[in-house]
Specification:
Order of helices and strands: HHEEEHEEHEEEEHEHHHH
Oligomer: single chain
CATH topology of the domain at 5-114 and 160-231 and 273-299: Jelly Rolls
Distance between the termini: 50 Å
CATH architecture of the domain at 5-114 and 160-231 and 273-299: Sandwich
Shape: globular
């Protein structure tokens, strides 16, 4: 998905400039700017406190942590996502290069929706849930297309939901298709249930990286844990808030769960133009519009240069 990402980033920046009828930027300068941003990142090793003490990551040598500030640089300044100051940081492989075709990352946030009951874990019908999610996504696409966005097709589970009742950790992966893109998108999700909410880990990767991400998932789940006072077992029924949804709705999507609609997540993200969880894929929409604009101008210029017909 991030193949030719340098070219995509340059073209994306160019599209903004061309729209203003100004000269395109110097590609070499843009690449140099990005490389300078990458050089300024300060990955952390070993034990890392997350979210002001909510959780802690004990990282193996092959995983590193980026602070929320560095995460914003990668997601917004390099990958072109809208700014979001609510992340808890990002986990990256030690060899991480945000411009590489093989790069991937795990973005962390916290949804303080309350204690999510897991009593529906043993009765979850994942086949039925997938069908409901597909129906909801098709319904949401009507609104997406009206607003000029590509339709999104839920192809199916890349990995069906799996829940560990002992650790209170849930993970699954979906395969998505955006518009007429020939490459499918990997939406890999990890959720850690806590006393006051859910620690959300979303993997930014492409479908061709599924095996790599799948192999790394057990290590990621083992590395990140809630700290004392924030764990699932610390819940106090007499005073703590209980979430309005369970595991099935959590898999369908956090925003959707709160709204009671499987399409809720997609509608809520309409204004963003790009999905944080799929990284740079949405840049393709901008590139299509750019090339259409360029080709249109070329065609108009060619027509203007033809001699008048007799």
């Amino acid at each position: 998905m991030k193949k030719y990402v340098i070219l995509l980033l340059v073209l994306f920046q160019a599209s903004l400039v061309l729209a203003a009828e100004t000269a395109p930027p110097d590609p070499a300068a843009r690449v140099a700017e990005i490389r300078k941003l990458v050089a300024g990142l300060k990955p952390q090793k070993g034990d890392v406190v997350i979210g002001g003490g909510i959780a802690k990551a004990t990282l193996p040598a092959h995983l590193l942590y980026l602070t929320p500030a560095d995460t914003e640089i990668v997601l917004s300044n390099i990958w072109g996502n809208p700014k979001d100051r609510h992340t808890l940081g990002m986990l990256i492989p030690a060899e991480f290069d945000p411009l590489s075709d093989n790069s991937w990352a795990v973005v962390m946030t916290f949804e303080e929706d309350g204690y999510v009951k897991d009593d529906d874990a043993a009765h979850m019908d994942y086949t039925k849930l997938l069908g409901e999610m597909k129906d909801g996504m098709r319904e949401a696409n009507e609104e997406r297309v009206k607003r000029g966005y590509d339709a999104i097709e839920l192809i199916g589970w890349a990995a069906p939901p799996r829940y560990d009742t002992a650790t209170k950790k849930l993970y699954w992966a979906k395969e998505l298709k955006f518009g007429d893109s020939s490459e499918h998108t990997l939406n890999y999700n990890l959720r850690l249930l806590g006393r006051r909410g859910v620690l959300v880990l979303n993997v930014v990767a492409s479908m061709h990286q599924f095996k790599v991400v799948e192999a790394a998932t057990p290590g990621i789940l083992a590395a990140v844990n809630f700290q004392d006072g924030h764990r699932y077992a610390d819940f106090k029924a007499s005073s703590d808030k209980v979430a309005t949804y369970g595991l099935a709705a959590l898999v369908a999507g956090g925003v959707a769960a709160k709204a009671g609609l499987f399409k809720g997540l997609l509608l809520a993200l309409l204004a963003l133009k790009k999905f944080l969880i799929v990284g740079v894929i949405a840049l393709f929409a901008g590139i299509k519009r750019l090339w259409a604009w360029i080709n249109g101008r070329k065609a108009a210029a060619a027509a203007a240069s033809l001699p008048p017909s007799t």
